[in-house]
Write a sequence for this structure.
């Protein structure tokens, strides 16, 4: 079972909010982990969005709009990237990442479609 | 402005070797850790290696351990990835990315990548 699991795709309407989940493998407690989020568009490298461990330990990437925010759902053992006020330019692939067993681990990514 | 420029990608034969380079500018290279990340066509990113600012700590993904070697030259603002025993599954775009010795905005800047193709 993968360390980080993301749904393959998500669709949402312009102006709406989208909640992208990143579920940690059973036995790995999300409370203990910093979750990083990246956005990638075709032909470009991933771009750093933010990191989130708790409300007191989080950081927005430089220049990243505040409508991108991080949180956790402890009951689901998951990190969450919330994008509010969706815009067409938010379409792309979103990846979560964490440091586990001396390695950076990426989730499989969620393709976000705004339509 | 932070800039990372990779080079050295090419077509290589299975079992062959390549050396990738990454030249950094726009920040104090010697005070940052660095990572290599690769992305196979149509797939998500896969972390390859991490090297601390002083080179005293280096980590590798299990998939490349024993075949790839990461090094850096802080005087030249350069990061390297020596790739030996190449396999078809190593085919990917290889990115260098800025990282941190401790907790920070890891992988906050990436290069544009260099393509490695392993095929006979």
């Amino acid at each position: 079972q993968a360390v980080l699991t993301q749904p393959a795709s998500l669709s949402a309407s312009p102006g709406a909010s989208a909640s992208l989940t990143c579920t940690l493998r059973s036995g790995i407690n999300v409370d203990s982990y910093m979750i990083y989020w990246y956005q990638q568009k075709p032909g470009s490298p991933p771009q750093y969005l933010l990191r989130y461990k708790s409300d007191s330990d989080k950081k927005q990437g430089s220049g990243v709009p505040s409508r991108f925010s991080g949180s956790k759902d402890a009951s689901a053992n998951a990190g969450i990237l919330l994008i509010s006020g969706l815009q067409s330019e938010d379409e792309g692939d979103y990846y979560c990442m964490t440091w586990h067993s001396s390695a950076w681990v990426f989730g499989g990514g969620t393709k976000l479609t705004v339509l | 402005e932070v800039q990372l420029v990779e080079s050295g990608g090419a077509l290589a034969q299975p079992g062959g070797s390549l050396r990738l380079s990454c030249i950094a500018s726009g920040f104090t290279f010697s005070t940052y850790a660095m990572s290599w990340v690769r992305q196979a066509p149509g797939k998500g990113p896969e972390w390859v290696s991490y090297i601390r600012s002083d080179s005293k700590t280096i980590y590798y993904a299990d998939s490349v351990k024993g075949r790839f070697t990461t090094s850096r030259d802080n005087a030249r603002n350069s990061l390297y990835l020596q790739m030996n025993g190449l396999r078809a599954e190593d085919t990917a775009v290889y990115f260098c990315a800025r990282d941190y010795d401790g907790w920070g905005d890891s992988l906050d800047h990436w290069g544009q990548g260099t393509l490695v193709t392993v095929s006979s």
